[in-house]
Amino acid sequence: MSQSDVVDLARLRRSCAHCSLQELCLPAGITGEELAELDSIMRRRRPLNRNERLFHHGDALNCVFVAREGAFKTISISREGDETVVGFHMPGELIGLDALGDGHHRCEAIALVDSSVCEIPFDRLTEIASHIPGLQFQLMRVIGQSVSRDQDHMAMLLRRQAHERLAMFLMGLRERLEILGQRSDVFRLPMSREDIAAYLGLALETVSRAFGRLQDDGIIHVHGRSIEVLNADALDACAHGEQTPPSAGRRCGSRTQG
């Protein structure tokens, strides 16, 4: 391996340490030249202010995006103009996969806080992926993770108890943070409670009571948007409507929604 290969690999690892595509640096057979080719199509650090839209409903699929800093929500808009939160995107996750079907975005992406993204021209990405097997595999894996999150969202909406929906949402965030190599026991929610309520199909007051119940049960500690998970096993049990461990002291499904 040449010196230039080593430099390319190290630089790409540093610049994409928390990216959903970072595993491209790891598989055998990915050369420094191929990494440089991938790196060359990236348009880095497009900044967005809080509440700024990354793309609009109906926009053509020109790029996919990786959230580099900050966080985003995706919303769908009905013909009547009603907005529904359909997803959240954390640092390192791909945004824009909704347009893979017909080439146009079916939702809008909005920055929850001041954020930045890496832009990846879709035509160049597919071209490069056709001759870099590691990239092709990782793209399929990331798309699969996105589908899994959509399925988890549907499962949340089927939960009868509000605190179970919230517990499942928090467990999903924990798992995503762990994948990205970040702390999952203490974290800050980038989204508002109004956004969480819209995502979970609940009233704002119901979500606030659900946070209070999980805190009263000793499962989490809430301070503003900061969440500390005190009992991960109890949170997981609550998310699945199961009896919580004795340390939590209650059965999550034993009371009516509140």
From TrEMBL:
Signal peptide: none
Native species: Aerolutibacter ruishenii
Annotated localization: Cytoplasm
PANTHER family: CRP FAMILY TRANSCRIPTIONAL REGULATORY PROTEIN (PTHR24567), FUMARATE AND NITRATE REDUCTION REGULATORY PROTEIN (PTHR24567:SF75)
Keywords noted in UniProt: Activator, Allosteric enzyme, c-di-GMP, DNA-binding, Repressor, Transcription, Transcription regulation, Virulence
One Gene Ontology cellular component: cytosol
Lineage: Bacteria, Pseudomonadati, Pseudomonadota, Gammaproteobacteria, Lysobacterales
Protein's recorded name: CRP-like protein Clp
Coiled coil region boundaries: none
